[in-house]
């Protein structure tokens, strides 16, 4: 009964009140929703963010009315929603990170122009820019990988870039991106410099999942040979083999995965195994 009363009161307040942004930096936003909800001793809240896949992801659940959101891109607007826990009465709102005072656009331009000398000068003057994401949520290393610029990747590594840096909300690694794109010389270089082959993104996918997503058997063979866990399960319980079935990848990829130890009997969180997924239209 108390929960229903709070929910009704919230509907009224939502017409005029929004959560407050109490602090923000280039990569963080601190939010407060204390004035939004009627006071209730046992109240708990759920905060979600709209990710780059346009899906709502839970980032906080508990009794606190203030939360700091981290790992955000500079000068970017984000969509959030908050509600009383276990209710569906969501309050949606937006907030933004502050502008990057040292502006990463110069670094991005130098990488695009393949100008290693300029990249070195910028990094020497401000080393922090080596790990700064631009407005497209890409670090310098990811930009170089997207350009398939092996020389720039080497240059950035020599300057001290972290090859295991997870990128923004999706938490992808440079290795995942290079494997997905099929830039395997870059992927091998990253591994030789300490890239973790068993890292996972926000959904629990490892580099074999990313190789499967590319639907390229050469990428899949590379990811397997790297030593990544072949039966790694995502947050949905999908192994790379189940992913291949869902994406209707080529039969060659299915065979490669099974020949290298992918277990066909593992079930996803939906209770279905590989063979069941094969029957789905």
Automatic annotation (TrEMBL):
Residue spans crossing the bilayer: none
Any single Gene Ontology cellular-component annotation: nucleus
Residue stretches making up the Fibronectin type-III domain: 15-100
The keyword Transmembrane is annotated on this UniProt entry: no
The entry's keywords: ANK repeat
ANK repeats: 170-202, 203-235
Short name of any one Pfam family annotated for the protein: Ank_2
Top-level lineage group: Eukaryota
Coiled-coil zones: none
SMART domains: ANK
GO biological process, one term: regulation of apoptotic process
Name assigned to this protein: Fibronectin type-III domain-containing protein
Organism: Brassicogethes aeneus
Origin organism lineage: Eukaryota, Metazoa, Ecdysozoa, Arthropoda, Hexapoda
């Amino acid at each position: 009964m108390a929960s229903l009363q709070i929910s009704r009161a919230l509907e009224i307040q939502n017409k005029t009140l929004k959560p407050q942004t109490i602090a923000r930096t280039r990569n963080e936003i601190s939010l407060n929703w204390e004035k939004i909800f009627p006071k209730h001793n046992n109240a708990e809240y759920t905060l979600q963010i709209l990710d780059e896949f346009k899906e709502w992801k839970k980032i906080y659940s508990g009794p606190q009315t203030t939360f700091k959101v981290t790992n955000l891109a500079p000068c970017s607007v984000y969509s959030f929603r908050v509600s009383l826990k276990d209710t569906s009465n969501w309050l949606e709102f937006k907030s933004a990170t502050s502008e990057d005072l040292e502006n990463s656009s110069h670094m991005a331009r130098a990488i695009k122009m393949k100008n290693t000398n300029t990249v070195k000068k910028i990094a020497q003057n401000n080393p922090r820019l080596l790990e700064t994401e631009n407005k497209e949520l890409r670090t310098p290393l990811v930009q170089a990988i997207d350009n398939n610029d092996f020389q720039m990747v080497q240059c950035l590594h020599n300057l001290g870039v972290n090859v295991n840096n997870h990128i923004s909300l999706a938490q992808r690694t440079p290795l995942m991106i290079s494997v997905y794109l099929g830039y395997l010389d870059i992927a091998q270089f990253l591994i030789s410099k300490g890239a973790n082959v068993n890292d996972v993104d926000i959904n629990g996918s490892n580099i074999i999942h990313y190789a499967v997503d590319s639907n390229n058997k050469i990428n899949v063979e590379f990811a397997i040979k790297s030593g990544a866990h072949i039966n790694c399960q995502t947050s949905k319980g999908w192994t790379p083999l189940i992913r291949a079935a869902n994406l209707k990848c080529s039969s060659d990829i299915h065979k490669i995965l099974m020949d290298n130890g992918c277990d066909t009997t593992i079930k996803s969180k939906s209770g279905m195994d590989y063979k069941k997924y094969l029957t789905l239209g």
